[in-house]
Design brief:
The complex is a heterodimer of chains A (192) and B (251). Chain A has six helices and 13 strands. With 192 residues, chain A is an alpha/beta fold. Classes of the chains: A alpha/beta (192), B alpha/beta (251).
């Protein structure tokens, strides 16, 4: 069973539909026990970092997520919250990945909104996804390139579009909104 | 490199796609989900659905349609038309819309922008602005263009950015439906005025118009309706041509 962590942020319906198109049923839940015993966990995220962290804390998920042993996929803000800290309201994240999330330069249009190329792809998460394929992104803050970077993109500078540490994966783009390349990524995650 | 987006727009009335010129003389242009699927397949970067129906069941019909669209397509889409409260926004996002577009309601109660941005994040909020040039000044218009205001386009754009809009969808009513090209001068000025993405709307008629709106108008995205609905311009071909003009597009 695939659990999508439910902490009341934004559009998760599209993610569920994307999984359904791959023939996979998912459950949207914040139940500690259910999440812990599910085969894979998807950690979505949209909106403000502080609101999202507060909601995770309300139900104790901030303690649960770092201790999960199965593959976990953080999407968008979900990926950023895997990190130590974000400049967005100077909020502490889950501290799984040792780095700080930074805001894009004021010289760029912020948020970055649209389709961008992904490059330097590593790990099985990017099986059958080509260098230079496009993914859909909407974000104002970014994870810099670090040891855990497994995919890069460029917007004014080079940044991490995907990260991995042990069983924790994070993607800045929205695979559920990234047409066939995004669907392939979700399929790869399900097959990990 | 971030690519320029091509966005087909579907005007929705009672669950069907319609198209008129300057917001009048509406004609049936097909089933929205069918059209949306076709556009997604043809590499549209995003879709916009604007509900122009005025029935009592409107909210329910639209919410159901959004759910059907989200189930069918795997590219982002925005929903707009008569959205005036946090509750409206919440239902649409819950049913799978990626963004909502707010127009008249934002002018009548600007704080709605702050409320939506704070609650759901600025990434999901498009503020749509319809404007018309009157004596060299761009003045914004409401209710699908029927009601004139004294508000200046550029001042309003700055205000919606400050209040938390993630994007601006600017429709030039002077250009909409004419197929004579986009309002490139005003668009370029808008891009200098604010630091959020601008979607250009109104006036698309030829492939060249798209080249101009990106090169001269500095738009981040271009929206069009009838030329796509009636197959006057093929999306595949449009993007191929833009690429030969060295405009970054997703193919």
């Amino acid at each position: 069973m695939i659990a999508i962590i439910d902490y009341n942020v934004g559009n998760v319906k599209s993610l569920q539909f994307a999984l359904e198109r791959l023939g996979v049923k998912s459950i949207l839940t914040n139940d500690y026990g259910l999440i812990k015993k599910s085969e894979k966990v998807i950690f979505p995220g949209q909106g403000a970092a502080s609101t999202a962290m507060d909601k995770l804390k309300e139900v104790g998920l901030d303690k649960l997520i770092p201790n999960l042993k199965q593959p976990v996929l953080g999407i968008c803000l979900g990926m950023q919250l895997l990190c130590d800290n974000t400049e967005e309201g100077d909020v502490d994240g889950l501290g799984i990945i040792k780095c700080n999330v930074i805001k894009f330069s004021d010289k760029l249009k912020v948020p970055q909104m649209g389709w961008n190329k992904v490059k330097k792809l590593r790990t099985r998460l990017f099986n059958k996804i080509n260098e230079g394929d496009y993914m859909y992104l909407v974000h104002s803050y970014f994870v810099p390139t670090i040891n855990e970077t497994i995919g890069q993109s460029e917007y004014g500078l080079t940044y991490s579009v995907a990260v991995q540490k042990e069983n924790f994966f994070g993607v800045q783009f929205h695979p559920e909104k990234s047409s066939s390349a995004g669907s392939q990524l979700l399929k790869n995650f399900l097959e990990l | 490199m971030l690519t320029k987006r091509i966005i087909p727009c579907l005007d929705i009335k009672d669950g069907r796609t319609v198209k008129g010129v300057n917001f009048i003389n509406l004609r049936d242009a097909g089933d929205p989900v069918e059209l949306a699927t076709k556009y997604a397949y043809q590499n549209a970067d995003e879709l916009v659905f604007l509900d122009i129906s005025a029935t009592e069941q409107k909210r329910k019909t639209l919410a159901e349609l959004v759910l059907r669209i989200a189930a069918a397509i795997d590219i982002p889409f925005t929903v707009g038309g008569g959205i005036s409260s946090i509750e409206d926004v919440s239902v649409l996002l819950k049913n799978g819309a990626d963004k909502v577009s707010i127009n008249s309601a934002a002018v009548k109660r600007p704080n709605l922008i702050n409320e939506v941005a704070t609650r759901f994040g600025n990434q999901c909020l498009v503020v749509a602005i319809d404007a018309k040039q009157i004596n060299n000044d761009w003045k914004i218009h409401l209710v699908g263009g029927k009601e004139a205001t004294k508000i200046d386009l550029f001042e309003w754009a700055r205000e919606v950015e400050n209040r938390g809009a993630g994007e601006i969808l600017f429709t030039s009513m002077d250009h909409d439906g004419t197929k004579n090209g986009f309002a490139n001068k005003a668009l370029a000025k808008l891009s200098e005025t604010v630091n959020i993405p601008i979607i250009a709307s109104g006036g698309a008629g030829t492939i060249e118009h798209f080249t101009e709106v990106f090169k001269i108008g500095n738009a981040d995205a271009a929206l069009a309706a009838s030329i796509f609905h009636y197959d006057e311009i093929d999306l595949f071909n449009l993007k191929k041509q833009l690429k030969t003009q060295h405009i970054a597009v997703r193919i």
